[in-house]
Amino acid sequence: MANQRTYGSGLVRDVDLLEVLALPEARDGLGVSRVAELSGRDKAQVSRALATLADAGLVSRDEHTRTYRPGWRLFALATHATETHLAHLAAPFLRTIVARLNETTHLCVLRAGQVFTLRSELASHAFRGLGWEGVGVDPFTTSPGRVLLSEWDEDTVGHWWRTFSGAAAHPLPDLPGAAAEPPSIPLDQLTGKLAGIRKRGYETVDEEFEPGLVGVSAPVYGFRGDIVAAVNVSAPKSRLGERLPAAGRFTRTVADRISAALGAPG
């Protein structure tokens, strides 16, 4: 029992250090002395603890300035926790769409340059309802992909598009990464479609991703006001094709409700 208490108290102290590195002052990194000062701990203890956290990837150390900042694994854990919470919160809202449209509905995010499904709610016929979670798809010819790109400025979209097309030598370090295939839509058409999404609040696709398949998507906003996910409905054109605009408006309404539940401004 004593060992468990010792381990637990050590973990709490390490979490305190991570909270110090999350302060606005730590944006450009903090040295050991400043971390010790802010945490009220001994400098030698802080130095050993930061070294351990760095080995685990929870903090990163700049070898030139000898300062520390949050590490890649901490961001990965935060992203996973956020997505898990988002998928759980969105589930009843997705079921509202299924009940209204009788089509399978997905919650999607942009990850590593592709669109991934976090959660699906199945319609009674379950058209393509299985197998999409965790599978990456093209962001350019899918409605959720375009929605997730729609808040980016034209320069960022253009630079990212050129990276995907092979016009850039390598993916930009501050962008989501490189896709497996080059863009299948000209840049001017893509920017026009993104502008349309910003105007009406949703996107539709008509057999662009796959023959006979149509879909609609609308953005979900987080508490910072940025797009964190897209709500998507996909179905055979024979069933949903004539209802696309109405389905888009309803999907946007439900996505707005999810945004409100996340604390999005406005």
Automatic annotation (TrEMBL):
Molecular function GO labels: DNA binding; DNA-binding transcription factor activity
Transcription keyword on record: yes
GO biological process, one term: negative regulation of DNA-templated transcription
HTH iclR-type domain residues: 8-72
InterPro entries according to UniProt: GAF-like_dom_sf, HTH_MetabolicPath_Reg, Tscrpt_reg_IclR_C, Tscrpt_reg_IclR_N, WH-like_DNA-bd_sf, WH_DNA-bd_sf
Top-rank taxon, per record: Bacteria
Keywords for the protein's UniProt record, in alphabetical order: DNA-binding, Transcription, Transcription regulation
Sequence ranges assigned to domain IclR-ED in this UniProt record: 73-264
UniProt key word Transcription regulation: yes
Cited Pfam families: HTH_IclR, IclR_C
Protein name in the entry: IclR family transcriptional regulator
